[in-house]
Design a protein that fits this description.
CATH superfamily of the largest domain: Glutaredoxin
Shape: globular
Strand order of the largest sheet: 1-3-2-4-5
Keywords: Disulfide bond, Membrane, Oxidoreductase, Redox-active center, Signal, Transmembrane, Transmembrane helix
InterPro entries: Thioredoxin-like_fold, Thioredoxin-like_sf, Thioredoxin_domain
Number of domains: 2
Number of helices: 11
CATH architecture of the largest domain: 3-Layer(aba) Sandwich
Protein name: Thioredoxin domain-containing protein
Radius of gyration: 19 Å
Pfam families: Thioredoxin_4
GO molecular function, one term: oxidoreductase activity
Number of strands: 5
CATH topology of the largest domain: Glutaredoxin
Strand content: 5-15%
Largest sheet: 5 strands, mixed
Structural class: alpha+beta
């Protein structure tokens, strides 16, 4: 029977820890981080090696159409759209934005492919040029701070600061559920970005967007999302390609160019 991803992760963690001569806390923590990156990298490689349909149209029909509730960067009338599901705590999501340098995830990806580059740099260029509409959707799955940060970004959106807050979160990742995205920190980020504090705090404290974040994850799961980052490239509302993980900027740029033809 094929082992689950979690079973494989635990097995790798145990193997690394058991083979560590001096089992101090920092080494064990490092082992767990490495195990997580190994599993994520395996998923990435598996996704990149998946067969591509010859007609370049991916057989997925359950992706929710881009609509009023979406956060869109770029021209909302552009024929080509890139819908990306992400988790603000996901290290590989952070890597594809390239807002931090030399993170463990980036080092891991460049070890696999020395020419790897963050694909969101190019995506933002297409969006700013008006050629592509970039749509960000939450698929918060890594714990409480994932859902909290997703809700906080939406609260920032109430003050027209979603994208600034979105970028700030990805630029300030610091492990999973270790307090980096605690409520006090999320509120401090809002002040740093110049948001009106009382309105932001009220939005976050009352869980205004808790259901919306949960619904976004459910919609993503229905569309076949099993991890992040996961992207769908659409042309005139139809899926023509996908992004199966932290693919290189060159690869994603070519997929977008193909869609623009």
């Amino acid at each position: 029977m094929e082992k689950s991803m979690e079973e494989n992760k635990i097995e790798i963690e145990n193997e690394i820890i058991n083979n560590t001569g001096n089992k101090n806390q920092s080494q064990i923590a490092g082992a767990i981080i490495i195990a997580g990156l190994v599993i994520a990298g395996a998923i990435l490689l598996k996704g990149n090696n998946a067969p591509v349909p010859t007609n370049n149209e991916v057989p997925i029909t359950s992706l929710a159409p881009v609509g009023k509730g979406d956060r869109i960067l770029g021209n909302p009338k552009a024929k080509v759209a890139l819908v990306l599901y992400g988790d603000f705590q996901c290290p590989f999501c952070g890597a594809v934005y390239g807002l931090e340098e030399d993170t463990e995830a980036i080092k891991y990806l460049k070890n696999i492919d020395p020419n790897w580059t963050p694909f969101m740099i190019g995506v933002k260029e297409y969006a700013e040029a008006g050629d592509v509409q970039f749509v960000y959707r939450d698929w918060a799955f890594l714990g409480t701070e994932s859902t909290q940060s997703a809700e906080a970004a939406r609260c920032a959106g109430d003050q027209e600061k979603f994208w600034e807050y979105h970028d700030y979160l990805y630029a300030h990742q610091n492990g999973e559920n270790k307090g980096a995205f605690s409520d006090p920190n999320l509120k401090a980020f809002a002040k740093t970005l110049g948001l009106e504090a009382s309105a932001f705090d009220k939005c976050l404290d009352e869980g205004k967007y808790a259901q919306a974040v949960a619904d976004s994850k459910a919609e993503g799961t229905k569309a076949g999302v099993t991890g992040t980052p996961k992207g769908f490239i659409l042309k005139n509302g139809k899926i023509v390609d996908t992004i199966g993980g932290a693919e290189s900027g060159t690869t994603v740029r070519q997929k977008i160019e193909n869609a623009l033809k």
